[in-house]
């Protein structure tokens, strides 16, 4: 069991019921989410001491988001209140050949406009063994980019290990014309674990990877990443092949500096219930595996099972225990458990 | 963009929630529908000026049906109020091997009993470029059959192009012992576009088509239809292969007088959300394609994508834009759009 | 049409909505169930006179369970009230690779603690042609085991035919250290029809069956059962192959004393709506087929169709008529019925 | 405990959720109702053997209506299936100063069009001690009027006591220009108990009652009724004073041939949950009281409490036991019962 | 019947279900609202040609808001799309002594940030007889204040009559330190009808009104307003006395330049369903009365009845016809209408 | 701000929706509750560090109950898992004259059967300033009675102040024939604050209090209690007058050893949303007031406002802040807060 601090934006997700178009009927289901919060909840469910750092508005929406993390065992005592609004996103769940659509409504959020000087990272990271960040945070603007870099920098100084999930979102970067490669290099350059595929590395290093075999292509990208970032130990990602909106195939890959490249899967994910948060579930699963000193292939199998499991659950959070993930990883049968 | 008038019955659909049997629990979801109204809503969503002609009772049910069409941009100023009740149908959604079941409750509806003389077609069609009708309307009784023929006749006189969707419903015809072949010939004999497969042509012309290849069979039926109806330009239909209640395969075919026969698909439609309205979505899609002067194969691909899309949406209406259908037709990826 | 008495516990099932984890949101759907009650409802829906014998608490929960059986035509005049609580179970519906989970909460139920002397079987079975029991009842404790044996014994004396569904639940037996083999032998030794596969027979007779072909293995087990139980006429079971939580393949087998072994299926059950009660639907289907003097293969095909149909319906009950099951058995098409 | 046969139409009620306008959102709650069915359910809940006679269509709607009565213990074996549709009504619940509105949709119902010769009253009333009818049934048309008179006539011949609830609905009578006074006289002329106020008697006897005191006015009307109908023993009614849509005051009155006039109430009914079925609950309550040989004032107090209780329950049915009504009649406290 | 243009912001309201705290359970009901949109919907329901002018984002939320107005007959062809987000507000419905709470989330909305030069008022007001504005619009910021003044100015030039509802919101004005008195004077100085009480006039004219009788105080304020604004013809307001969160008493007052002061009410509003939009319903009611040339006291009675009626309906809109309001105004009885 | 430990059973409440009878429709709303847990949540919401001690089963129900307390900020690290089931209660919400009904289903709960030796009170109370208990816990059985006495005894030893809420439940005591007076004396004899009215003191001391004035009667009971229990400082209670199920009047009283008797209220509580938990809200409110060193009358006014507020909120918990309660206590207006 480890102590992990996650830094990122808490969001409210407002989802059209069933497979309806957004506001086809005038009702919305609400879930709490956010890439890093999803990781925190997963890790808490796996038995770790997960703690969230962030900013929410001082209103019922911010309070509800904090409360929901508390409900799942995440320490929210370091989520402070600030000016600005609650970050929202609206989700419409697709089906068959009609893709799901996200409508973001996070501009001007308390998290986005918070002064980076407001985070006292020495205090916030005290006691943590890991800091988890994602590429969504710096993509939100100058201020969050500065805060993310400050967090990673202080983590390195304090000997806190850093996990970074690429999560490249070009739309967000374009809005404020942020220098994504430079900023992401600052973050990847401080991480021991990076969740990224070849596209992320292309963005960060400005290099193309043209291998036709998808695993070889990630190997090449990982090789480049290990060269560029000497502190980096592990690069991992999933491979997703969507056959339709409801039916994907997933596999996973973990690369080590020594050239080791472990694969897991592929698993058939048919009848997807809710795809959001699959990548975060994978990240949390792998962190858990590595923290627990599983062999790389066991950790990767666990992480992939966690990711697949998320697709079976409504909402952003992967509300399962480590034992449940293990049981899925071991394919312990698909009939009712009584 | 065109101006299209749709003539037909507005219905309220009352659906058992989820996959329950009808009234298994005592709740019903409500949708507005009706073959021609579904086409009107699709066309409005595609950017056309769609207008509905029909009759509803002067009560909250009739008002709700009109309001729902307005919500989707259809002009309902020519839907008048009349004596009689609101046409209803109750729907139970099947699953796996248990088929969906419709329980009609449309006898005595305001639309069915309306005096055909009450429609002043010269005024109702003023400004329209297209009139869309379906075989459901004449199947309802003597009065609606007369009204449909009068509408098509006036459309021809005014140079309004006519689109006719066969939609053959033997149960309805039997109830009043209507002479389906004679009446449908009146309507098909005035249409430029007919949505029909070989079974409809067999009914109308009293000829069998015995080809084993389904596309060849439709070609033969189309040939017969073009011979019988000199004004007819296009005959189109879908081919549906159901593997289970939730999983069909769809393809489509468009025939021209010159013998050209274009095919689209086949597309796998697995995990069907709601199959009702698929044919109407196809008709609207093809009308859009032809109005927009797409090549026949592009128009057919668009129409098939529209039909498939409908299967992913709860309710009778295909609540998508032309851009969304194009994106599905081009298979632009099945992962979440952010 | 026959008169059938079912003896067993009525349960309330409390289910998390959709595919949520239990109490992920604080709402529960309620269904009434119980292995023998499920059979009673099916048989009533098939046109038989089904009657329930059991005990429920004298409170709104017991009343609701009785009322729900009445709603489906089952005679509940012999379900009496007694001390103790209502048996409950909580259900979480899995998806993809995450299995469904049952949390039982039936300890101390009115049924479990009822004095076996409280059942006057001569009166309770008067007029019955069949008595249906399952292995769940004796597994609940000494008292219910005694009651089940007394019921079967009196049935034999009165010439009432006995149907017994194995339903072996090791967890329940372990709780009170009941001698499952001895007690189940008492019950199987009085039944004309037993629903059991090789595992049940292994438990009862203490013999392993090592054939690799699953049908041959059941044949061997049936052979042993016919040897051990001279009154036994039929042994039947389903074969279930789960590909994922939502996708199983089902076939079925019926063995006669003369060595006849009839098979049905296999049928693909994809997009499972609710798997609970599938075995009870099979038992009711086969009882119906045999009561109606169908040929064995027709009866088995009917029973398998009934079992598959249950997977398409929310709740424990298979709310379909015999005509609907026949139509599924005959694969009469998967498109909407209008 | 008595055996009571109720003859009338089963209806499905479709209600807008909460206090919404009808179809403001596209969902409807469903309840089963009908004036005589409401009485049957109440009496069954009070411990009597209540039986329904009527006709429903042979479709899922008719089946659901029968099932719902069964659920509450009413014998529906004499509700037969027939041609025609299910009678429906749509309800919008008002509030404050906005009245509730009913939209009837019962034209052409299986009950309304059923051949009166189809009822074999000798068989249908065999074993009954009471027949309960209401003025809604003859108001539906010639056929139902004939059936109601035939039922009352046969009841008199067989010595079955007749209870008749006036329920005068001018709108229904006007639709077919039925001779309400003549027909209602036939029915009142065969009843031992009539639920009616002065307005009903005015309609039936063509006499005005001009007393300003409402109780005196009913006394005068009762005097006239007892003169006109020599078999009549009891006339009873409620007095309702609506202060707003949600807040009424209720009292009740029972008149005997000997001039005895008993009063109950008045009770304040504030925060009305659902007013529909209040009169039927009163009728059932009084029938129960008289059958149980309560003193008139006790019976009337019981009936008024039953009527008030109905206002606290969603749906048409008064789902309470006699003990619960007694407790309300005795005002046993308004705090939570634990 | 008149043609009325309403200028203001369209909002989505997200409401906690029942009387729950916001996000107590994670679901939200959605309604469309906005002070001026509420007036537009009311007027459309009363039979007028109401048209909305405003700006919404080009996303599913903006589209849903437009569609909902269309559904109620409001012309939305002049609601254009623009940059920025959808204005939202979250509502928690109080009860007993716990007040309802609004959490605004409208900063940065497409309406708030729209360039005032983007409105071509000559075109937008073509054909209108009335322009309706409220004090919410200028309170949103410099840009909307300019737009509102430009609209009123052009209306005066074109001879379009102006209706202005004060709706003073100090919180909004403080946020951008707008000069409320000066800006509101510009608007009141161009209106023929002003909805305002003495507090609004105090803000605008900087004068206190100290009369203890509330009607006299409004008379005094009206006198001052008529002096300050020579074009002003009518000032009207409601008087609200809240006894608890669910129980208010409402009366109303209309003042004319000649000193005439008409009163209506008071009406008891107990069991409030939804208080939001009551003031807008009053404004729409009075506009309707004056447009229809009712006597002042009739118009005021109608307006007050409309306001009270709104309290009985979920959502912001007063979904009633003029006939329904008249019936409430005439207190036509509170029992169910059948 | 104080540190308060609450010891008691966590319960799941399963409530019929709206004002339905239990299982009238087959759905249940779920809330977490329990007298002491309700106090803990209130205190946490008021800003205190509340901690729960108890036992729940190791299943999803127990986990959900813990999670829900966490969500509201209560420390659940001392709620351990144990054998047995989750305590449940089913609630039906009455209306008008029909009382709400609780159906308990808590027999055999993990809390009830937990070994009292399993609580290490020295550790469990470490750091606490207050221990809060209620009379429900000892009423559950020998084991919980022992545990409660052990907790109070250790609290006294450690200088932790004890708050005890009488909550006398005769039904529970009768079930195990517990010596209520003796056991309750042990607990009251260790408390500084007791929530009790004259009935509780009668039970405990075996003395009647016959004063007709309700406040005088409580004064007399308090006098007796102060004599019997020398450590007792404060006795407080509410006075509730129910006018109907939905409409109560509440006042409150606080007595000191020196004979001081402070009163608050009375407040009219009309349109009750959910009465459960009102007493617990009062207890939490008074504890808060006294901890914060309010004057007795301010504390009592605060506590009464908290109790009234609870009646406006669905569920057992009083989900309000101290500021919100203060605002209610000060009657800061009942109109919408924007």
Automatic annotation (TrEMBL), chains A, B, C, D, E, F:
Keywords: Kinase, Transferase. One of its GO terms (molecular function) is kinase activity. Residues 1-311 form the Carbohydrate kinase PfkB domain. CDD domains: KdgK. Gene3D superfamilies: 3.40.1190.20. Pfam families: PfkB. It comes from the Bacteria. Coiled coil: none annotated. Belongs to the carbohydrate kinase PfkB family. PANTHER family: 2-DEHYDRO-3-DEOXYGLUCONOKINASE_2-DEHYDRO-3-DEOXYGALACTONOKINASE (PTHR43320:SF2), SUGAR KINASE (PTHR43320). This is Sugar kinase.
């Amino acid at each position: 069991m480890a102590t992990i601090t996650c830094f990122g934006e808490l969001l409210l997700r407002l989802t059209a019921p069933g497979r309806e178009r957004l506001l086809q009927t005038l009702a919305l289901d609400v879930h709490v989410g956010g890439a890093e919060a999803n990781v925190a909840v997963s890790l808490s469910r796996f038995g770790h001491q997960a703690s969230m750092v962030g900013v929410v508005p001082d209103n019922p929406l911010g309070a509800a988001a904090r409360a929901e993390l508390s409900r799942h065992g995440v320490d929210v005592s370091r989520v402070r209140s600030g000016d600005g609004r609650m970050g929202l996103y609206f989700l419409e769940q697709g089906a068959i050949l009609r893709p799901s659509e996200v409508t973001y409504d996070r501009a001007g959020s308390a998290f986005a406009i918070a002064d980076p000087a407001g985070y006292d990272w020495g205090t916030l990271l005290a006691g943590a063994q890991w800091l988890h960040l994602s590429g969504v945070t710096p993509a939100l603007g100058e201020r969050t980019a500065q805060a993310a870099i400050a967090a990673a920098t202080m983590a390195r100084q304090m000997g806190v290990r850093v996990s970074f999930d690429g999560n490249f979102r070009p739309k967000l970067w374009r809005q404020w014309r942020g220098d994504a490669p430079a900023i992401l290099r600052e973050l990847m350059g401080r991480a021991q674990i990076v969740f990224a595929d070849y596209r992320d590395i292309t963005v960060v290093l400005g290099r193309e990877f043209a291998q036709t075999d998808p695993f070889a292509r990630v190997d090449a990208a990982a090789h480049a990443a290990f060269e560029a970032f000497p502190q980096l130990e592990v690069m991992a990602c999933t491979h997703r092949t969507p056959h339709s909106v409801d039916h994907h195939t997933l596999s996973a890959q973990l690369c080590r500096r020594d050239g080791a490249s472990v694969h897991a899967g592929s698993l058939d994910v048919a009848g997807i219930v809710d795809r959001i948060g699959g990548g975060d579930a994978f990240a949390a699963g792998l962190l858990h595996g590595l923290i627990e000193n599983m062999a790389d292939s066991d950790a990767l199998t666990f992480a992939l099972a966690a990711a697949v499991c998320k697709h079976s659950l409504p909402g952003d959070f992967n509300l399962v225990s480590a034992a449940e993930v293990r049981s899925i990883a071991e394919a312990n049968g698909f009939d009712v458990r009584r």
